[in-house]
Amino acid sequence: MHPSAVVVFNERTGEPEIDFDIPGSKLTDREKLVRRLAAYLKNGTLTLGGVKLSMKDADAIKELRGIINTANEQFNGWARGNVAIIDRLESRASDPDRLRFSQPEDESPLPIPGMNPELTLHGYQNAEVRKRSRDFSGINGFDVGLGKTFTALALVQYVQSIGVKKKTVFVVPNSVLSNWRKEAQRAYVSIDDCLFVGLREDDKGSTKVSSSNYDEDLNRVMENRHSKIYMTMEAFERIRLKDSSIADYEQFMRSADASFAESEDRKADERAKGKAKTILSILGEKAGAAPYLEDMGIDSLVIDEAHVFKNSASTVDFSGGKYLSLSPASKRGLDAQAKAWLIRGGSDRGDGVLLLTATPITNSPLEIYSMMSLAVGHGRVNDMFVGISGADGFMNAVCSIANEDDETMDGQVRAINVFQGLNNAEMLRGSLSQVATIKSAKDVGNQISVPDAPERATTINLPEATVRQLEEYKQAYRFAADAIAERGENRGDPEAFERVSERFGESLELIGHPFNLINKMTMLIADPDLDQRVSRFIIAEGQQDAAQKLVEAWNAKKFTEDRPRPGPNATEDEAVSRKALYDSDKELVGYLFKMPVKAWVAGATITIDSISADMQERFEEMAEKAGVALDVSVPPKLAALLENVQIEAATPRGVDENGDKIPYAKQIIFCDLLGMHNKIKRLLSKRAGIPASAIAIITGQRNNTPDEIMEVQNGFNAPGEANKYRLIIANEKA
User: What is the pLDDT of residue 450?
Assistant: First the structure.
């Protein structure tokens, strides 16, 4: 690497480190940079560390990067040519105790006692049941519509009928527990051995999940009268673990994940203990009267929509890079990992956990690691990657990180680590194929019939006024960003900044934030009314008087809403109240204004000073009672949406359970701008021939309870006259 390289021992920790012994007070720039290589080897970051050099920082970073790249190439060549290292890796990779061989898919019919004889599995479902019955672990990654639910029900029935498993828990989202009950009733001859935790049926046959029944039903599991237990994720999280099991799990994680391991390095040890403490507090501090998992006799676990647990691992020393998502581990994910470990530990074959998800692969390698370790265990994932130790080892094995110059949003050029892609892609691909069965409609061929789903991109021509306003926002942002960065030459437009600042009442820091610019541009392109922060309604000719009375009635009710700034259509003087906001250091960071939501008539339109969906609904309800017919404007993006909806409505392609075409199209519209949902609904009910009662809106605030979501789902899926909804408008979170 370098003739001055030496191994030294840290006086504080006693740990070995690489340093560069270059004595003298008149070192050259290159010698100083070589000494910075020691900091890179220790921390994984490329910095100058305040070293005084004769060259510019940018040139120094470039030269240091070259030194590091050369050192890495030399080390890689040495490692690949080291017979002892290569032999050790090959020996571990070919260890018979760690090898698993793929089985040919057998799609022939599989008789399963207790299954409804009128229902039959497709060939690919038979193959999946056979595969998982030999090793009840992994991920069922069938695409949407290929029958993950029915396959899981058949698999559990089969493994229990042959005595491989005896008591299985299905963990499902809260909103679909009753749907799993319906599927079980359809799949099995009898559901007498099924327990649905927290689910109750009323006199009318409707079902409802109540968390107050969770602990009672969880304790019923110990009666051993049920071999299939279905519960929500919330109920599963309530189940406790004994202190001895928690202690054993901590010791296991310390051996399976290097970030848990004890270290003489005090700093590293404190960080590792901090991670362990998080695990221990999550597992050991549970309220309620739920039973201990160890006493429930559970030997197998099926998790539906398992991507909910994708954040169940975290790194400690892996530094990451730009474009690489490293989300923190969630409490729910960590809880599930511990319980999955305990269930696998009770099996002679080390299996017992099956995940169901249509999205087993995400853009984050860490999430892939989380999913695989939850499905088959940390130890098996470590073996598949030839002896890594935990999340840090996995990320180092599969992530290609390079140090590059990058220009930030404030115009500064900095040396940062950048995620460039995947290393060891073949190893990752092979591991995924071992763990997950991923199939699409194309993969299963003619076994199922799926309607065509052509993708059609629509070009939107924006009005000149919108294009000019977009440029205004860009110029204002550039001026603010350059001012914050204290650039010598500001590339923005100061007049544009002043106009935007005055209009929205925003500070330099806020206008110069990239997300603020993105938000402004998104709303302007979607609908100029959103850009004005108003909801505008068109009134019919001859209804001006009624409209004026409606507005007066609205204003008399004195509706208010909280805002961080008064808004473009109001001033601070109009605020009903103002509340000061402070940070954790008790520093004033802003105000919260309680502003009146005004309405006014201008020509043939009524405008309300709000884009809140709740305020829109209230106004529309008052308008309906007052007999004022409301219409909406159609900006270019909504015009394109309307055209697409009309095309689909004119050519329905859906079929019912008998294979007959249904007379209308069913559509789902995703829109994250909640202030547009009511407008879209009104537009489609007036111009696309879809009754307003046949359009449902689902967001985090509307139709958001499990019962409401289930009602919409059932109403949308129901055939014939039982169908209630033809179109659903939802945001991404829904």
Answer: 63
